[in-house]
Amino acid sequence: MRRRVGGRGDGEEAEIDRLPIDLLAHILTLLTCFKDLAQASSVSRKWRQGVQESLARRQRLSFSGWKVDDDSATRLVLHAYSLKELDISRSCWGCQITDHGLYQLSMAKCISNLSSVSLWGSTGITDTGVVQLISGARSLQHLNIGGTFITDTSLFAIADSCPHLKTIGLWGCRHVTESGLIALVNKCRKLESINVRGMRVSVDCFIVLLTISPALQIEPKGLMPSIDRLSLVF
User: Fold this and answer.
1) Phi, psi angles (nearest 5°) of residue 17
2) Is 30 helix (H, G, I), strand (E, B) or coil?
3) Which stretch, 1-5, 133-137, 200-204, 223-227, has highest mean pLDDT?
4) Which of 23, 41, 86, 186 keeps 20 to 30 A from 226, CA to CA?
5) How much is the pTM?
6) In angstroms, how far is CA 16 from the centroid of its own chain?
7) How many other C-beta atoms are found inside a 10 Å radius of the C-beta of residue 128?
């Protein structure tokens, strides 16, 4: 039985449900607030379908600044079949993603098509979760895992699983060593830029990286005068 809205009879469709599902889904893709999407999903069965179809069309999802946990993030990503860019960076309000969440996300159909992932500042994750997620992300070109507690284990997995990687952010990853960086640059031959700000790595290591890949951009620029001089030689 149809709902009565605005005095209509039982057999009439509510005004709010008259939009074609394709148009409704397109409009809902314009919503960037997940709270708004949740509210839209509760309007009616048709709107719930519209939310699901809008997620399936999205090529970018960002949880940065939103308070989401493993389960809520997974529910959204599982419906985002066309996703290319995923941002689950942590902010002060917190995206609270853990290894369990990364494991759940690794099961999503979109993972193999992702070109960009940001896990910046996600202190609840370790090598276990990163390796699980990265192992299926073979199309990845841009990765930011700065501000996390990963070790060389994650870099070894990235080196083996991400042949198309172009940029990586390792800002403040103080448990990563020369071994992990060298393995990464050796295997990711398309790597163009690497951010090493705040890492505990010697200048000699950076010289080795430039020897392997002379065109590699090591950020921040001007990190050490010797690196700048060496890049000019090549």
Assistant:
1) -100, 10
2) coil
3) 133-137
4) 186
5) 0.80
6) 34
7) 15
